[in-house]
Amino acid sequence: MELDIVSLSRLQFAATAMYHFLFVPLTLGLSILLAIMETVYVMTGRKIWRQMTKFWGTIFGINFVTGVATGVVMEFQFGMNWSYYSHYVGDIFGAPLALEGLMAFFLEATFIGLFFFGWDRLSKIGHLIVTCLMAIGSNISALWILVANGWMQNPVGAHFNPQTMRMEVTDFFAVVFNPVAQAKVVHTVSAGYVTASVFVLGVSAWYMLKGRHLELAKRSMTVAASFGLAGALSVVVLGDESGYLTSDHQKMKMAAIEAMWDTEPAPASFTLFGIPDQENRITRYAIHIPYVMGLIGTRSLTTEIAGINELTLQARDYIRNGIKAYDALQAIKATPRGEEPPAEAMQAFEQYGQHLGYGLLLKKYVDDPRQATPEQIEAAANDTVPGVLPLFTAFRLMVALSMYFLLLTGTFFFLSARRKLDKYRWLLRLAVISVPLPWLAAEMGWLVAEFGRQPWSIEGVLPTVVAVSNLSPVMVLISLSGFILIYSVLFVIEMGVMLRAIRNGPQPDHAPVSAQFAKPVTLNPAVTGEAK
3 with 473: CB under 8 angstroms? Predict the structure, then answer.
């Protein structure tokens, strides 16, 4: 990768965003699990469910603190590294971010304090309400962030104003109820539920293998298996919906995911395995499953899915239209203040303005797109093809892991119903080693979503190459190095604190919160009453 401002800015945002998302899914899922566990406690009055809620709540709190710290820094980058992006689409993109802060962040941050310190100050029902509001706040926070991201994938409810040179909102409800955003919200949140469920399964399985906290472990596994199975089913169903919407709104991304170089007769086949060769535009050693991709991508047997080569030719035509839009825009900008822009320029922009973003792709090669050569137009058209091999591989890994989580949670759900959770020790070991896998699947999902959108910051509207701030590569490299160093230290600290809390296990009700993080003490099993 060249050390240019665009590549470094992308790398910095990718590093901080993917690091931040290590904490988001666990926060989303654990918040709901806490509400479920405390509901059972309020309904039954059994102390073990209160102990479970407090223990998993401690893990939630550790994760929440680090997630907030990394998330705030990530949002500041829009002003630091992507100032033209903020200027160009800030009217639309800023609204969901502001609502996330006002409606969700303060709700979540307020009630998390009451959750930890209100056990002996609130009634059972009052504390349960606090826990539920904390869970709602966590999930609403994800809602608004994903609405903003969904608009980047499918920019609806807005138009470009040639007078102000900015995108402006025309229908806020179209932005909020954007079908791409809604599918992304449910898919991502469900993935968080699976992440938390597999995490609770794995930690509980570790306790069972060690013969510790068996009552808590078995009940936690039962809740996690049930919740995780529902989440895994939702991930699969909403993944199918996301694929359908991608084939409608982001045709190049879909073609790249499938390494579909040429348009196939309907219904298209699904490439189970292959090695895409982007330079020669072929897929080597491809294994195809007939009809499957056509059914997933179009939900029909008669609709084609466009191939990369056809879409590249289409992009070339759009770039030529974008040049005309850019020329009309320059005439509008040159109009003296107080005078009406030329009618011809306004008419031309009305006709070709929808492809202005494609004309801006030429900014990578020439300052004035109107001066672009045919070779530069061809190069810009080829730039609309994202990296096929990373997308092809990441998508298949994500799908394979999703099927694995469905099988894993389904198996433990069946065992919990049969009261045989502790019968198969190899399954318990499998649950322990499976703990990191949901994070891998989530990161692969974001790689597909964001890397697959390139070269666009806003799909079809604003190319990444023109969205960056006017900084030197050295400045971005210094801040990138600082972020990597600080985040690495935070990660080590956070993992250390979380592992210590897990090793210590649940504490008695009278123990202070700080006892959860004290140095573990090994007691004689005869004293603790636990099997060695």
Answer: yes
C-beta of residue 428 within 8 angstroms of C-beta of residue 205 = yes
**φ/ψ of residue 326, rounded to 5:** -65, -40
Give the pLDDT confidence score for residue 247 in this predicted structure.
75
At 222, the amino acid letter reads T
pTM summary value: 0.90
250 Cα distance to chain centroid: 17
Cα 432 versus chain centre, distance: 24
Q: Taking Cα atoms as reference points, which of 269, 275, 274, 276 lies closest to residue 296? A: 269
How close are the terminal C-alpha atoms of the chain, in Å? 54
**Dihedral in degrees, nearest 10, Cα atoms 189, 115, 221, 441:** 30
The answer to whether residues 36 and 226 touch, using CB atoms and an 8 Å cutoff, is no
- Rounded CA separation 449/184 (Å): 10
Of 16, 74, 82, the closest CA to residue 462 belongs to 82
Q: What is the pLDDT of residue 294?
A: 79
The predicted-structure confidence for 70-98, as pLDDT tens digits, reads as follows 887 777 888 888 999 999 998 898 888 88
Residue 185 is encoded by which pair of tokens? 């919200």
SS (H, E, C) 283-343: EEEEEEECCHHHHHHHCCCCCCCCCHHHHHHHHHHHHHHHHHHHHHHHHHHCCCCCCCCCH
User: How is residue 295 written in tokens?
Assistant: 């059914």
d(Cα 478, Cα 455) in Å, to the nearest integer?
25
Query: What does the domain layout of the chain look like in residue ranges?
Result: 211-471
Query: Cα–Cα distance between 438 and 405 in angstroms, integer?
Result: 8
The interaxial angle of helices 388-417 and 214-249, nearest 10 deg, is 140
Based on its alpha-carbon atoms, the radius of gyration of the chain, rounded to whole angstroms, reads: 26
